[in-house]
UniProtKB/TrEMBL annotation:
Taxonomic lineage from the root: Archaea, Thermoproteota, Thermoprotei, Sulfolobales, Sulfolobaceae
Family: Belongs to the adenylate kinase family. AK6 subfamily.
Described function: Broad-specificity nucleoside monophosphate (NMP) kinase that catalyzes the reversible transfer of the terminal phosphate group between nucleoside triphosphates and monophosphates. Has also ATPase activity. Involved in the late maturation steps of the 30S ribosomal particles, specifically 16S rRNA maturation. While NMP activity is not required for ribosome maturation, ATPase activity is. Associates transiently with small ribosomal subunit protein uS11. ATP hydrolysis breaks the interaction with uS11.
Residues holding ATP: G10, G12, K13, T14, T15, R104, K142
Source species of the chain: Candidatus Aramenus sulfurataquae
Gene3D superfamilies the record matches: P-loop containing nucleotide triphosphate hydrolases
Protein's name according to its UniProt entry: Putative adenylate kinase
Uppermost EC category: transferase
């Protein structure tokens, strides 16, 4: 049994994945931790405070998942896995996600890019492109027990769409200005 828990940073992937693993006596596997511990990244982006990877990690990640067999895999990138029996993508209201990432004291660019990815459903779309069946769960107003209950019952939220909210549209415009401003500075330095 391979359960994949995915979503943008700050939605609660680690908490949910670890709780599922604990309740069902499964192994827990963090793809990010595995990549960092095994130095499988190609570079480190100082500005975004993140490791950059390439496709060379896919084989190693899948070998480890197959070795563990009964496992809950947590990752931002669902397409790193060749297969999963259950795919869960956690979603979070971008306004709440923005506050969560700011609380982590991430820089403006990193916050903007990750919240924009949530607004646009980047991780969700990647999961849907890669796997036949994907369960999206909006965790914005749910406790961990409510989220786990939904997973157990196979209950999913239908088509999470943040763009239909005027407040989220305003936030997206603000984030776009941050990203565009950064891109302009970066290109002028080149």
């Amino acid at each position: 049994m391979i359960i994949l828990v995915s979503g943008t940073p700050g939605v609660g992937k680690t908490t949910v994945a670890m709780e599922i693993a604990k309740r069902y006596n499964l192994s827990y596997f963090s793809v990010s931790q595995f990549i960092i511990e095994n130095k499988l990244y190609v570079s480190y982006d100082e500005e975004r405070q993140t490791y950059n990877i390439d496709d060379s990690v896919i084989e190693k990640v899948n070998m480890e998942v197959e070795r563990l067999r009964n496992v809950v895999v947590e990752t931002i990138y669902p397409s790193l896995l060749d297969r999963a029996d259950k795919v869960i993508v956690l979603r979070k209201n971008p306004l709440k996600l923005y506050e969560e990432l700011k609380r982590r004291k991430w820089n403006d660019l990193k916050v903007a890019e990750n919240v924009e990815a949530e607004i646009l459903g980047v991780v969700s779309q990647e999961a849907k492109d890669w796997f036949q069946s994907v369960c999206e769960i909006d965790v914005s107003e749910k406790t961990i027990d409510e989220v786990i209950s939904m997973v157990e019952k196979g209950e999913c939220d239908k088509d999470v769409d943040w763009l239909s909210s005027p407040e989220v549209e305003d936030l997206l415009l603000k984030l776009d200005k941050i990203i565009t401003s950064h891109d302009n500075v970066y290109h002028n330095e080149q």
